[in-house]
Structures are given as C-alpha cells and as structure tokens.
Input
Amino acid sequence: MVDDAVADAVRDILAVVPAGCSWLLPVTVPDGTVVDFRIAAASGETQDIYRRGVDRVDELLSEIYPSIVGGPLWRTYLDVLRTGVPDELTDFRYEEKRAGVVARSLFDVSVHRVLDGLLVWWQRLDEHQRRMEKTELLGSLGWAEYDLLTGVSEWSPGMYRIFERDPALGPLSRAEQSAALFADDRGLSEAAWQTLDSGSTSDVTMRFHAGAGVKYLRVLSDAVSDAQGNPLKINAVLQDVTARESSRSAIERLSDQLRTREITALAEHRLAAQLQNLIQPVPRTPLPLPGLEVMVGYLPAESAVRVGGDWYHAQELPDGRVVVAIGDVAGHGLGAANGMAHLRFALIAWLSIGIHDPDALLTHLNRLCTQMRITGTAVIGVYDPRSGVFAWARAGHAPPLLARGGATAPLELPPGMLLGADDGAAYEIRTPRLERDDLLLLYTDGLVERRSGSDPPLLTQVSDALAAASAAVDDKTVGLLSLRLGNPSPDDDTCTLTVRVLP
Output
C-alpha cells in the first residue's frame, strides 16, 4: 500500500514533467489478482489523445482506455508488475473508434515498476514521423500544425525563420496568414483547402510577404481525421524555394536571349559566365573551413556556349565537420544547368535538416534525378578535423586524387551507380584518414578528358602536378595549383575543388 504522502509527492513531480508519463497502481481482488489499474499520477505538461492531462488521476485504466484491456500492452503491465523487470513496447498502435479522436496513433511505451506500481512513459511516433518524412521529401525548413477544433496553431522554429517573425509573438493567426499571402495567389490557397476537403494531400507554391520582401513558399499539407472521416487538424510542411524560383526565372530570361538574338561568340561566353555565376558563384580566394583550405575552380567550355551541368558545394556543418561535394549533370545547355541547380539546392536543403551522411545524400539525389529524368555523377565527402577521417561516397564519378609527400594516387574506389540510372541504387562509404598538408583534388571530367586525346594523358599530367605540389606545401600551394590546373576544355565545363589539410 502506497503512503498518501508519497502518492502526493509523485503527483506533484509528474504534474510538471514535460513528457507523457503516468503512474499506475494495481487494483486487486481479495485473492491478489490484478483486475485493473488506477491512474495515481499523470504528467500535466502533455495531454493524451483525448486532450486530457492531470484530470485523468484516480480514473480506472479500463474505463478511459478500454481498447488496451487484455491486449499486448496490458500483458506488459502485468509482467512488469509481477517480475519487476522493466520492459518496452515499440510501435504500439492504439486505435479509437469514437468521433473527435484521431483514429490510429502510434507510440513507443516504456514500463518500469516504481513504488508498488508502474511508471509508464508514452512517446508518440506517428505525427513526428509524418513531419520528418515530408521534410525529407521537400528539404523543408519548417512545419506547422493547426487544430481545427480549438483553433490553436503550433510552429517549429523554422517557421519563424521563414516568416522572419519573433517566436515570442507565436504563430500567425489565420487572418494574419491571409494578409501575408500575395494577392494574386489567393486562388491557389482556396484550391488547397478544397483539395484537403476532398481528402487528398495539397501541394502548392505560393508567394507570401515576409519581412521586407516576398518569398516563394512550397506548402505540402494534409488533414488528420477521426474514424468517421471528420477532419481534426491540418499538418503542413513549408519549404522556402525563393532561391530556386529566382534562379529559374533568371535561366528563362537568359534562354530567351539565346533564342531571340544573334550574338557573337564573345557575348555567348559572357552569357554563359553570367548563368554559371548566378547559380553557384565562384569565390576568388580559398575558402577557410575547419581544418581545410578549399579553392574552387570553374572554367566554362571554350568552343561555344555549352552551358554545362558541373556543380560544387563546400560548407561547415553545425558539429564542426566539413562537407565537400562535386558533380556533373549529363548533357549541355540550359536543361543541364537547370538540373544542376536543382541538385545543388536540394543538397543544401538536405544538409540544413541534418542529413549529413554521404551515402544518404547520394540516395536522395539519385531519387531526385530519377523523378526529373536526368542522369549525372557526384562525389560527396565529409571531413572531421578532429579525427582526420574523410568519409566519402560516389555515384558514377571519378575518385578524388590524394597527393602526399610527392606521390599521387586516387582514393580507394567504392561502388556507386550513376545518379538517375536506378531508383533503388545503394551507395557505400569509404573512410580514409587524411594527414597534415595532404592535397586532395575533386574534379569533373572536363579536367582530364579531350576528344582528341593528349600525350601524356591529361590525368597523368594532373597527377604529376599534384605530386610536385605536395612535396613542399605552404600557404600559397592551393592557389598556385588551382591556377596550374586551369586549362579550359574545348568541349566541356571543368570544375575543381583543390583541398589542403591544414596543420
């Protein structure tokens, strides 16, 4: 029998716990058989699916959650109470047929015996998984939830960043959202609500006034209903696609110029350079990143306007590691450049939501290429300056070249299929360890391939140049080496990332 003072103390503690916890005491008949459980305490910061908090205290489990009686969770309660050994029931599906309640919910449930009773912790999975799946699909920066019964909205931190709004003000009201919507896009908003009302998922891109400007926001939303089909709340994932839309508009303007004007070869080269710089500006000096010095090189094909699909990316991750990537979309022209822009912006979006493993990033890029019906190659690597490990994977791309102490060799080649060739392709990671003053070169095929060939082969010439540079590395090595490799190809763009491991 639990002392009243102890029970009161447990109630006070759980009432302020920010998690779905409850303390259950067994209800027995004279022979000691457990026939039910009484909720002796419950967390007040988190509500159950019926929106109940501490008001569940003193209720019988069989009366407020009748569908669990005799089921797997009920048996887990009895086993833990009898043996004292904690247990966990993963992916427990709770079903409810009453109106006004989500029909099917998914939980992980942990059970411990505490003070002659059971301490039960519920972690809801279904809504969290839904948000994460949509976020992964879109490379999103924020999610929102709107309760149709209470009118209460919940925003993730990313939503406040998108709308440039102080979190202390809370989410925008329905009226404020309507006022922020670009007037010409109100028809899209109405169409989205009609789509949701029909039971389908809505996917629209609309313009909103945010801060001092206008942003393009892709909004993917769906409705959650009870067993009778009555909508209870709206879940939405938003992606800020302003940069993508702006780049697309610029590409279309440049395409019109190419179609409608007779321009000289010099003007054509200038237009190609403008397009390349619009999508991925090339820094003039090395990028200072944790433990690395990275120099970007980009040379358009010299024979004509052959705007290519070569792309690169390099940035510091929140945990202090560095990601470097390079790739090439098959083909030339504005179609290849458009594909390159999609891949580069998608990679940046996935990195922003915490997807950092090279194999996972290539898997997502591969699926995007399949959907866009384009093909390409890529290398993605993540360098840890603390351990020196360079974790990398490839998709149909040549391996990086590593130069150390006067010798050059390609990194060990992991398998990796061309992007867009097989939607189910898998990618493997290799993890070599880099050393002080190592030189690493990531490049596209314009650097080493010529239709007419060369003697000695260009790859041999590049390897020799790297080897010579690695024999005596100093602060000028990366810049000078990048200039030495800067011979444009007549037929293909060339992109390089020259990397030095800093002392």
